[in-house]
Write a structure and sequence with these properties.
Elements: H1 13-37, H2 49-60, H3 77-82, H4 92-121, H5 126-137, H6 140-143, H7 152-171, H8 175-191, H9 196-211, H10 217-245, H11 255-261, H12 265-282, H13 284-308
Helix pairs in contact: 1-4, 1-5, 4-5, 4-7, 5-13, 7-8, 7-9, 8-9, 8-10, 9-10
Length: 310
């Protein structure tokens, strides 16, 4: 059986540099906007998300553990990224300000990745694509999370990174590219439990590529196994953290809690409606861009009709 791979069109160096510059400028603009929005915040809120992330960060950074008692658990990916701050200080305000600065950097990086997605999925020019990515990234609904020590700041990076890796894997379904996508999917799950579907999508893409004879069954099986292994490793790491900071943790945000939802269609539909609205509000820039494109298409069609008229 012959295995074929998709061929990608080479991008001219000047165009590649233009996209790189557009991505870097977008990242800087969004990072500065996030820094400005979160200015003046010196203490965390009493929502469990923030104390949980700070508690995990403090423990992983070698500080004195906080006990989260019976609250829900949160995946430790973001806290792990923040934890090195405790090697240098135990001042709570400094730690909190560092987290806000980290959010700004992650937001800028996410915006840069969004520029790459625009380049890959749309016919836009570099700076038009950068403008679209910036509008999406600095919309009020997107900036809201930058003021809080939440895992969403890291999810914003890992989700588009996984999507880009999957697109590259689909172009040329090699083992190395598939493993990269699987690891990124697992890291996304290690940041937020709702990212579980990314691992399933990664395995599904590998299986479909094998069924289409674009890669071998061996490669697809290797990608599936490595993705599953990465998910298990992340789950064991999260369990290690949970066992040391929670007494009797709630299962609301746990892996088991996510699986339990699969048997509740009503809950899934409610969550789907909520997430759909959330994404619609957060991507107002895409909506506006689409509206402008639609108006232009209608006007162009009207002009063509007028020219064709006798």
């Amino acid at each position: 059986m012959e295995v074929t791979t998709a061929q990608t069109t080479a991008v001219p160096p000047t165009e590649r540099r233009a996209w790189l510059a557009a991505g870097v400028v977008t990242a800087l603009v969004v990072a500065i906007a996030r820094t400005w929005v979160s200015r003046g915040r010196d203490e965390f809120s009493l929502w469990p998300d923030e104390p949980a992330q700070l508690a995990m960060s403090r423990f992983l950074g070698g500080g004195v553990p906080w006990t989260m008692h019976d609250h829900s658990t949160w995946q430790p990916g973001y806290a792990t990224l923040l934890s090195p701050v405790h090697w240098f200080t135990d001042d709570p305000v400094t730690v909190f300000h560092t987290a806000l600065a980290l959010n700004a950097v992650l937001g800028g990086l996410a915006a840069g990745l969004l520029v790459l997605l625009v380049r890959r999925l749309t016919p836009l020019t570099p700076w038009t694509g950068a403008a679209v990515a910036a509008i999406i990234s600095i919309a009020p609904a997107a900036l809201f999370t930058t003021e809080f020590v939440w895992s969403e700041a890291l999810v914003l990076v890992l989700f588009p990174a996984t999507l880009l890796a999957l697109l590259r894997f689909d172009d040329a379904p090699t083992f190395r590219r598939g493993v990269l996508a699987g690891i990124l999917a697992a890291l996304a799950f290690g940041t937020h439990s709702r990212m579980v579907p990314l691992a399933l999508v990664t395995i599904g893409v590998a299986v479909i590529a094998a069924l289409q004879s674009r890669t071998t069954a061996r490669v697809a099986a290797g990608v599936a196994a490595s993705t599953a292994g990465a998910m298990i490793a992340v789950r064991l790491y999260a369990g290690f953290v949970f066992d040391r900071l929670w007494d009797t943790p709630s299962t609301t945000n746990s892996f088991g809690g996510v699986i339990d939802h699969l048997g509740a269609p009503g809950t899934i539909l409610i969550a789907l409606a909520g997430q759909a609205w959330y994404l619609l509000a957060a991507t107002i820039g895409v909506v506006l861009y689409g509206a402008v494109g639609l108006v232009r298409s209608v006007r162009r069609a009207d002009s063509d009709v007028v020219r064709a008229s006798p």
